[in-house]
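Morning run. Coffee first, then this:
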Amino acid sequence: MGYVAVKGGQEAIANAAELVEYYRLRAATPPIEIEQIRTQMRLLVDKIMGEGSLYAPDHAALALKQNEGDVFEAAFTMRAYRATLKREYYSEVLVTRDMLIRRRISAAFRDIPGGQILGPTRDYTHRLFQPELTTESMPSIEEFLQRIDAHIDPAKLTAIPKFGKVIDVLRAEGLLLVRDEGDRRVVDVTREAIKFPAPRSAALQMMARAETGGLMCLGYSTMRGFAAGGHGTVGELRVGDVAVQVKDPRGRVRYLGRITVTECEMVNSSKGSGKKGSLPLLSVGYGLCFGQNETKAICMGMLDNSLREPNEANPANSQEFTLYHTEGVESYGFTNHLKLPHYVTFQSGLDNLREAMQRTLASYAGLTVESPAK
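And here it is:
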């Protein structure tokens, strides 16, 4: 392809940046504080951290502010910043069984060990406007928080328990399919170019970084019959905090802190091993992503199942189609590169088209066309 540089160079770029800032600030409204975005737009911040592939709430809030809420640009900014950071350690495997639970549900069973914990969600609320938010003030916020505190009896507070996994119930009955995963390498997709067929670790990493809407599109297609695997069921969905640990140079495991994640295990029907006489069993698809992003984790679980049954006829069963086309930052960048100057290639195409038209017209010049019969 041929691209032409924008006239003006660095001066033009500086002027463009200044003009963008003007449009952000021209109404002269009070500036939004980073803490406000981080705390009151937490779900959006979680989404940016996931797609930006960097767990840094303050940075995600800053990216949203400077990009005026553009999710794609904010994720792009996060990825660009992440690329400048030095890789010091690889963390130990997250132990989600030890998660400090905020929310835990199962659609597969009514009663689960430890019980259903609905937690913070809008699943059970009306999708109606709340006009009172237009006049929200600090006194009204403090009044609300005091009302919530009044419901809490300190004498009844207990230690936060750990919960077993719901799929342990299915595993104990021998109902789960044990797959031969083949390539079990743990691939770091930020350091190693993806190759197909990709190991499951690479597929899960790419989906954890993928654009939520893209994953939902393909996940929805599996439920509508455009993929092997069909309609899955949420075996368990968890939202909570997990410990991050690393090994220091002397091999000692060090605790760094906790991060919020969403984990989902999707249960699907399976055809078994495919061998004669094999029993139809249940397969489990897995999803885990930063923050509280339940839609993404559920879609990851659905697509994890479908990707392990390759079928190039269905997009959701194709690794290359699914993983490439849900990569939000790359697809956003490539789509928006169309706004760059393409004068050379387009004019070359026009020249070829004009020449082709002239040759075609010239070939018709010697022909006579009979008048239609009256």
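The beta strands are 100-105, 233-247, 253-269, 282-290. Good start to the day.
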